[in-house]
Amino acid sequence: MIKIEKLDKFFGSKQVLTQVSADIQDNEVICIIGPSGSGKSTFLRCMNALEKADNGRIEVDGFEVHSPKVNLDELRTHVGMVFQRFNLFPHMTALRNICLAPEQIKSLSKSESEKLGRELLERVGLADKADAYPHELSGGQQQRVAIARALAMNPKVLLFDEPTSALDPEMVGEVLDVIKSLAHSGRTMVIVTHEMGFAERVSDRVFFMDEGQIVERGTPKEIFYESKAERTKAFLSKIM
Amino acid sequence: MFSWFRTDIIVEYWPLFLQGLWTTLELTAIGIGVGTVLGLLLGLGKVSQVEHGPWRWPVLLFIRWPSTLYVTFVRGTPLFVQILLIHFAIVPLLIHPSEGLLIQGDVALYLKREYGAFISGALALSLNAAAYIAEIFRAGIQSIDRGQFEASRSLGMSYYQTMKNIIVPQAFRRMLPPLGNEAITLLKDSSLVSAIGLAELAYAARTAAGAYARYWEPYLFISFVYLLITLALTYGVNFLERKYKPL
Fold this sequence. Notes:
The complex is a heterodimer.
Chain A: E1 2-11, E2 14-24, E3 29-33, H1 40-46, E4 55-60, E5 63-64, H2 72-78, E6 79-82, H3 94-105, H4 110-123, H5 139-151, E7 157-161, H6 169-182, E8 188-192, H7 196-202, E9 205-210, E10 213-218, H8 220-224, H9 230-239
Parallel strand pairs in A: 3-8, 3-9, 6-7, 7-8
Antiparallel strand pairs in A: 1-2, 1-4, 4-5, 9-10
Helix pairs in contact in A: 3-4, 3-5, 4-5, 5-6
Chain B: H1 7-12, H2 14-47, H3 56-75, H4 79-94, H5 105-142, H6 146-154, H7 159-189, H8 201-212, H9 216-243
């Protein structure tokens, strides 16, 4: 589903990704862990071209992401994204946040899109919050709406950029539960996270990133209990 | 106490003042309306950007830079000079009985005779307001969190759909206070078009003043009228601000 070859990315003169390569299979759930500033988010954002890599290639669902000819709008309907800070549209209700893209892009009628929107809200446990504005919702609720919004285009790939990092601790659980319920439901998921317990339970494979490289990759068991790289061990011992 | 104030001058020139008030209101309304539409386009032009791909340079060359150039020129020159330039140089170039680039012949003659100063005045005020409103739009658009843009684009919505549905509606709420200021400025600046003989409020006052060599009455009177309209505009903008609170 996702094929990444020798990606380089610079911010000014600082190299944030160095020759990163990865293959992610259909329906696979990948968690990317690592210290802050290790390039995890940048790597993720390259996958839907929110960042443009300087070298290398990325193929997502058959789209050559950094080709000048690629239709980015179409690619992005296949790749949903959930942000650390939710980024809900504050001037719209929860339901309208979800319905907007299907109406604009797939030309769904208002009744069709709202039916879809209500189904998705139900799925994230917020059926009663359809008419609430984002500022009336808690952080956890906002993030669940954001997940429903990302699902509205029925993407084949879902990218999560530290989805629980901006949440109060008591709200982390409800968001992780929703993400877990989506895993292995016919979607490829790539999740940048600091929640190690969650990463261990939900992912098929874990990538450990440090200093712009994937230092180690493997099953949760291999990374969390049998890691071979010193940097992985040092990182895990610090946070576990 | 106010016995020195010769109300009869105002009364005698009442029709001219009334016509002047109407012209001032028309100029202000046109200036704000046309200026807002043009200003939105210019403001969007100033922030337009294609980060990569074949459209990058055409967008810079034909949209972004001309918008910036226009705004810089208009904001960097006096409105008074712009009015004269438009009335005596640009409009005759476009509308002229024999060699107008846009309109020629009898229609040009008629327009020039009947509406010459009004066309120039309205055009000058609209073009001037557009530049200031463009800056208001640009600031409003750039004040919206980048995450909003990214969230919208990541759903697959185009640049245009994102601007229309996400960025501009949010920016608009933040722009209401400065837009209100611009409307008030425009109302007062419209007095400058009296220089090209357009019979608005200031022109009416000048006429009355000239006839009687009395300056207190006409100018005090129109000051009061401007003040009243300004207060009305302020009230209207406050109402809109309450209705469309920034989020």
